[in-house]
DNA sequence: CTGAAAGCGCTAACAG
DNA sequence: CTGTTAGCGCTTTCAG
């Protein structure tokens, strides 16, 4: 029982008008008499007319769709970002096309093609961990499709980006541990080809330096930062002749692993070893003790990135901009010496 | 420096062929000589030709895009579902358009219009909590756009749906508690106009009945199931003259709230009160003790729903189908009397 | 203020 | 095997 969609030409015929007139009436053009405008709208309503965006898009060369490429959608950060981004896009009358790279470079290249084929008017992207070169983004640039990087960015002055001040996050977190009296502070770091992990590590070093404490290599451990990595890392630290008094981790997952190990060994948190993570994952307030972490203001990031993208889509040609979002240190039990229950 | 997209007609001109020939060569039509096919592909490659899907869609009346409407994308369940759904869709050459209703009925209605305007070839939807009537879905039916409900479904025999066997989930969970020796078992239930919560509650009752245990009204508490609701619920239960020996909650969030209260009161889990939740949220394996929960096989659900949708899109007119996914009870410390560390 | 006509890029008859 | 042609539904000159 397919019901044929009413089209502009249907309305035109019915009303003895030219399609162009109907089109203008519908799109709120100025040079249209109030009378015809009303007649058109009324019939459109009656026929439950829905504009065929595809046709309009083809004609105008713009699809009214914006693409978002993320490494994955499961997990706290990216889903929150999406929430913000989608809200902004929809309010501005744009649809959102979603692609996940699954942290895979090859898939990310395909995603870019998908976006181009879908004729999106702009693209928001956070690169996969395995992405080492950026040729596929050149295609986008060549076609003059507005492009905004967020969080995991391609660092280059010509690029539009929204990023978190990861350096500040690392700095504040480490400084907080120092203020709690810790001096030997370890760091769990992530892949060092990604800006975010480089910067978190940088903040850590800066804080230590300000306190005149040298970096000890044996206290800095890099990994993929899963829970298992955190477990292994903690075991390694505890095996040292002089274990650290605290750990600043660039991920909440690995700090949970560390926490597990400490509990198994009946070590107290934070009295024996204080812990602080990164991302303010939802579980950080559910563990025992609660985990101190750095909030990335995910939704704000999504809002900002999408707003920037929309501006680029709507007003042509702008000088590249970078927006930096400030993180917030959330102090919880795992790092607070004097506020244990 | 916008680079003009190469089109089929560009290729045709360059090669002195008709557009139709080029189109056929490109789409792997059979009646095309190997020679021309090669020439066409080669030039297409050179010009970095990308098909204009919009034009094809307009012509064919199919957009190659599938829509997904979910209540929200942040959180475990829906993001996992999306992961599965997107994987299937992309593999079949379809794009995915995402809309969130934010658990709001009005927004859900708008989402439906968005999908229709975007000319999606099919729609997958899980309804918002506040959705009480289903008129907006009639629009979709009227247009003969394939529609699949998942998880939170509109229960009607004419509808295509993928759902979890929530009844089984509730039944197994409760039976497990019974097998652990608990007899007075409380239930935290969700809004009773949603099929999922009705069924989880139903499974609970069935299990009790099989053990010849009557339902006690004071042990059954309905709420929105947030953590705070769980706290309040637990307080209420503990204030009873004879508190229960276990709680089966239809949500992991409220069971965490309950856990908090028990710990504050220095009650032991599971010795004093055993706990079991629902959804197998990622934090359930991070709490102490770990939380027993029911895994919803989210990704599988996304896969199944999208596969069903694709079948409907590709082969026309089928009898409505319902697919039921079996949940898995994940037994953890919070309910296991003899396996405490 | 309204109409006629062209065309966005592609596909699918229908001819050869 | 290839070419010619029409048209998907809409917007946008260009003419009145």
UniProtKB/TrEMBL annotation, chains A, B:
Pfam families named among the record's database cross-references: LacI, Peripla_BP_3
Lineage: Bacteria, Pseudomonadati, Bacteroidota, Cytophagia, Cytophagales
The name this protein goes by in its record: LacI family DNA-binding transcriptional regulator
Matches recorded under Gene3D superfamilies: 3.40.50.2300, lambda repressor-like DNA-binding domains
Superkingdom in the source lineage: Bacteria
Keywords: DNA-binding, Transcription, Transcription regulation
PANTHER family: HTH-TYPE TRANSCRIPTIONAL REGULATOR GALS, LACI-RELATED TRANSCRIPTIONAL REPRESSOR
Originating organism: Hymenobacter segetis
MF terms (GO), sorted A to Z: DNA binding
CDD domains, per the entry: HTH_LacI, PBP1_LacI_sugar_binding-like
Domain HTH lacI-type: 6-60
């Amino acid at each position: 029982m397919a019901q044929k969609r009413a089209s502009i030409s249907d309305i035109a015929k019915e009303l003895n008008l030219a399609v162009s007139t109907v089109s203008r009436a519908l799109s709120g053009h100025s040079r249209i008499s109030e009378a015809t405008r009303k007649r058109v709208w009324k019939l459109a309503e009656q026929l439950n007319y829905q504009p065929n965006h595809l046709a309009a898009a083809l004609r105008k060369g713009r699809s009214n769709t914006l693409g978002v490429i993320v490494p994955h959608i499961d997990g706290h950060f990216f889903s929150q970002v999406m929430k913000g981004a989608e809200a902004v896009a929809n309010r501005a009358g744009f649809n959102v096309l979603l692609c996940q790279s699954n942290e895979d470079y090859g898939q990310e290249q395909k995603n870019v093609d998908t976006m181009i084929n879908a004729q999106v008017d702009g693209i928001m992207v956070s690169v996969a961990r395995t992405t080492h070169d950026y040729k596929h983004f050149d295609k986008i640039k060549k076609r003059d499709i507005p492009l905004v990087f967020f969080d995991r960015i391609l660092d280059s002055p010509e690029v539009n980006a929204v990023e978190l001040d990861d350096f500040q996050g690392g700095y504040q977190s480490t400084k907080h541990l120092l203020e709690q009296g810790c001096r030997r502070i370890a760091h769990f770091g992530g892949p060092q080809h990604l800006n975010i992990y480089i910067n978190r590590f940088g903040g850590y070093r800066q804080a230590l330096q300000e306190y005149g404490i040298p970096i000890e290599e044996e206290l800095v451990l890099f990994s993929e930062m899963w829970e298992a990595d955190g477990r292994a890392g903690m075991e390694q630290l505890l095996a040292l002749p002089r274990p650290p008094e605290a750990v600043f981790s660039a991920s909440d997952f690995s700090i949970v692993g560390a926490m597990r190990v400490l509990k198994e060994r009946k070590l107290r948190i934070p009295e024996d070893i204080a812990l602080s993570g990164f991302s303010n994952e939802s579980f950080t307030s559910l563990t025992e003790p609660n985990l101190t972490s750095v909030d990335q203001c995910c939704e704000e990031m999504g809002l900002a990135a999408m707003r920037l993208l929309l501006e680029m889509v709507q007003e042509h040609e702008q000088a590249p901009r970078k927006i930096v979002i400030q993180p917030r240190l959330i102090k919880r039990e795992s790092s607070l010496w004097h506020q244990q229950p």
